[in-house]
Amino acid sequence: MAGALEPREGWVAEHCPMAATLDIVRNRSAFLILREAFYGATRFEEFAELTGLSEPVTAARLHELAGDGLLEREPYREPGQRTRQAYRLTEKGADLLPVLVALMQWGDRWQRDSRSRVEIRHRGCGAPVTAQLRCAHDHPVSGDELELAVRRGRRRTSP
Amino acid sequence: MAGALEPREGWVAEHCPMAATLDIVRNRSAFLILREAFYGATRFEEFAELTGLSEPVTAARLHELAGDGLLEREPYREPGQRTRQAYRLTEKGADLLPVLVALMQWGDRWQRDSRSRVEIRHRGCGAPVTAQLRCAHDHPVSGDELELAVRRGRRRTSP
DNA sequence: CGGCATCCTTAGGGATACTG
DNA sequence: CAGTATCCCTAAGGATGCCG
User: How far is CA A3 from CA A7, A8, A42, A64, B48, in A?
Assistant: First the structure.
């Protein structure tokens, strides 16, 4: 009962949306699977091949991501073959796109020797796409223009 | 020589900036440490307490993040105390902010029961800040407006 | 060929005790 | 208070082999 991954105490860690998100996509392989799903992969073999993950890990991740509602399975059948599953992003899964784009961006900037094989563009307009911080008034926000406001009412005190 | 973490083959995985980024912030604890650094923590005990991580893990992560240039150590000395280290975000570390904000956002939207204790606002303007996808022409870009362009020249074939 | 079961190695992380 | 050292358990993931 000792062991890992249960945060020790945690009114802080608990209910933190970032930590909660990392509980879903907790590992590198999940990100890689999602990346390929964004890039258009749908079949088991594509995921395994393009991510470089082993088949067992690929299978485990696909199931977990489907179970968490980020991917949905869609049975398909090629003539003369048995029924197989295609995996497609759900809205919930696709909503992680800003995270992935932001990760890629950071790598492009700071990790020498890493360069995405895919460029993301705005359809039609053709301009490259980046993840940016914006305020609700649409101002671009840089790191030093941030203000942190601690929320009051530590939940269940909403009078 | 078997074992983990060396991607099996990987012209795909290799040089992917997202994977490269995840090689730096590969684990949950690294994200948690960075979160607290963004929230203003600088001292060892703050990190350990606010993240809920054990001291050994906190120490390991702080060292790794400093070694990777995301945090810098700054010796300080309180009167009558020995010299201690403060840990502050570097520009490289602060540049991960969009990733963290995007993760938080996703959790806020999709993970019921998770709600950040801190709201991020634009200083002065006061409006809440979100991570968004924008193209270079400043159009907001939604998931279905994306176009993927495979880069030509698989490195070292630039002519 | 797609997919799972088994096995083994390594990395992540808590508990506890200890040091300066 | 600011960490280290040790110990032990769990999660991640590759290799291999099996099965429909």
Answer: 10, 11, 36, 22, 18
Q: Encode pLDDT of B42-69 as tens digits.
A: 999 999 999 999 999 999 999 999 999 9
Distance B43 CA to C19 C1' (A): 19
**With contacts defined as CB-CB under 8 Å, which chain A residues touch B9?**
52
Question: Which nucleotides of chain C have an atom under 7 angstroms from any protein CB?
Answer: 1-17, 20
Contacts of B67 (CB under 8 A, 6+ apart): none
B153 touches chain A (CB under 8 A): no
Residue nearest to nucleotide C9 (CA to C1'): B3
For B66-131, give the DSSP string.
HHTTSEEEEEEE-TTS-EEEEEEE-HHHHTTHHHHHHHHHHHHHHSTT---SEEEEETTT--BEEE
A-facing residues of B in 83-102 (CB < 8 A) are 92, 94-102
CA distance linking residue B58 with residue B15, whole number of Å: 29
For residue A150, pLDDT over 80 is answered with no
Backbone angles phi, psi at A11, to 5 degrees: -65, -20
Q: Does the beta-carbon distance from A143 to B95 stay under 8 Å?
A: yes
In whole angstroms, what is the distance from residue B102 CA to residue A18 CA? 8
Residue pair B118/A150 in contact (Cβ under 8 Å)? The answer is yes
Tell me the per-residue pLDDT of A53-79, one tens digit each, with 9 for 90 and over.
Answer: 999 999 999 999 999 999 999 888 877
Residues B113-159 have pLDDT tens digits of 777 778 899 998 999 999 999 999 999 999 889 998 877 544 332 22
A 10 A CB-CB count for B133 gives: 22
Is B21's CB within 8 Å of A139's CB?
no
- The H-assigned helical ranges of A68-156 are 91-94, 97-110
The yes-or-no verdict on residue A153 having pLDDT over 80 is no
